[in-house]
């Protein structure tokens, strides 16, 4: 399945209308988001990835009136027979494993990369479901094979099943329902109750998930970041050469209070420092991501490759920028302004081909900047 740039994933809805009227606001059903879609990822692929140590996967079954969940990695024998009670397997970060899945995410470029999380794929047998629930994040639910009925609700108050190992709404009231066929897609903003039920034994759904840091996460991680960037002299101790005798020795005297208040108020952070924090926070790789280091090569050989081959981001790599500052997998990359355009291109397109005409000095400067990223396994050449 080739995805060309003409595929406009939102159907008749323009990107402007989508952002204005639907994004983070209300659900949107898109029939035929991709025409004649045939999933290059099969259920077999999914079962294979679910056995990988690095994969985040779940198996959900509804048995004896209870929703049950098992977490991967799985063994082949862990998957029930199709004839058994309905079941679902969900595998996250499929874009790390299949180049098709990675390029599929490019169809959602109208949302900034900093908000994009991953492509999750789920397989369900007929009647398989993860139950009525709501999520805290935006999601596009793309039907890749088979059929799934989606019911959505407009309720604001949910009661949750306390006995269940997964989040299940017990008072779910369906407002709309649709059967999605291959190529159809449903967008849901956060906190909309939804219930998807497979209608066939070949049901594959792609979930394009988004992420949003919580205020608590931003603030607590910022305090950690500030702690790490403190350059206060550790040998400087509190002093009180003008100490006076005080009536109550247990009382903390006003001089001490004032001095400690001043010390706390000395903590300052510039906008630049906050930007560095933002870049690092938003490019922190997925927790389970492991970057394989390539065989070390010299700067000379790396430069030769740079001038001939296409350089691409590892699918697990997150690269973003703020003006001329680049962040890749939580690291700040300092680069001369002159070369920023190349790095912007690499970040936006996730790949770059340098012109063979690049002069020696430029090739050298880019080589010095990019080689450490290559040696960390963050970037690689397309073979
Ligand atoms: Mn959901």
TrEMBL record:
Gene Ontology molecular-function annotations: 2-oxoglutarate-dependent dioxygenase activity; metal ion binding
Organism lineage string: Bacteria, Pseudomonadati, Pseudomonadota, Betaproteobacteria, Nitrosomonadales
Family annotation (Pfam families): JmjC_2, WHD_ROXA
Cofactor(s), names only, from the UniProt record: Fe(2+)
Entry protein name: Cupin domain-containing protein
Ranges for domain JmjC: 100-227
Record key words, sorted: Dioxygenase, Iron, Metal-binding, Oxidoreductase
């Amino acid at each position: 399945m080739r995805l060309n740039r003409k595929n406009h994933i939102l159907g008749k809805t323009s990107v402007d209308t989508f952002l204005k009227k639907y994004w983070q606001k209300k659900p949107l059903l898109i029939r035929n988001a991709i025409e004649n879609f045939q999933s290059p990822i099969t259920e077999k692929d999914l079962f294979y990835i679910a056995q990988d140590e690095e994969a985040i996967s779940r198996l959900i079954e509804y048995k004896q009136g209870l929703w049950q969940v098992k977490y991967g990695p799985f063994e082949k024998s862990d998957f029930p027979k199709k004839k058994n009670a309905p079941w679902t397997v969900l595998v996250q970060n499929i874009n790390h494993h299949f180049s098709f899945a990675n390029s599929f995410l490019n169809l959602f470029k109208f949302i900034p990369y900093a908000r994009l999380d991953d492509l999750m794929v789920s397989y369900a047998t007929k009647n398989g479901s993860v139950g009525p629930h709501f999520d805290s994040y935006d999601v596009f639910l793309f039907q890749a094979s088979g059929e799934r009925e989606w019911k959505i609700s407009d309720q604001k108050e949910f009661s949750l099943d306390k006995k269940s190992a997964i989040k299940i709404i017990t008072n779910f009231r369906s407002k709309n329902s649709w059967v999605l066929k291959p190529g159809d897609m449903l967008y849901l903003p956060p906190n909309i109750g939804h219930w998807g039920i497979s209608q066939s034994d070949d049901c594959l759904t792609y979930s394009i998930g988004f992420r949003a840091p919580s205020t608590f996460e931003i603030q607590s991680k910022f305090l950690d970041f500030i702690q790490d960037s403190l350059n206060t002299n550790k040998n400087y101790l509190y002093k009180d050469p003008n100490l006076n005798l005080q009536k109550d020795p247990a009382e903390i005297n006003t001089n001490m209070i004032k001095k400690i208040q001043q010390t706390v108020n000395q903590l300052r952070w510039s906008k630049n420092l906050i930007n560095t924090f933002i870049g690092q926070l938003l490019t922190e790789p997925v927790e389970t991501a492991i970057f394989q280091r390539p065989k070390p090569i010299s700067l000379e050989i790396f430069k030769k490759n740079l001038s001939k081959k296409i350089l691409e981001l590892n699918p697990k790599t997150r690269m973003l920028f703020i003006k001329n500052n680049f962040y890749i997998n939580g690291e700040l990359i300092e680069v001369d302004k002159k070369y920023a355009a190349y790095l912007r291109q690499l970040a936006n397109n996730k790949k770059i081909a340098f012109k063979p005409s690049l002069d020696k000095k430029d090739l050298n400067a880019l080589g010095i900047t990019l080689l450490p990223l290559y040696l960390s396994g963050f970037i690689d050449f397309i073979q």
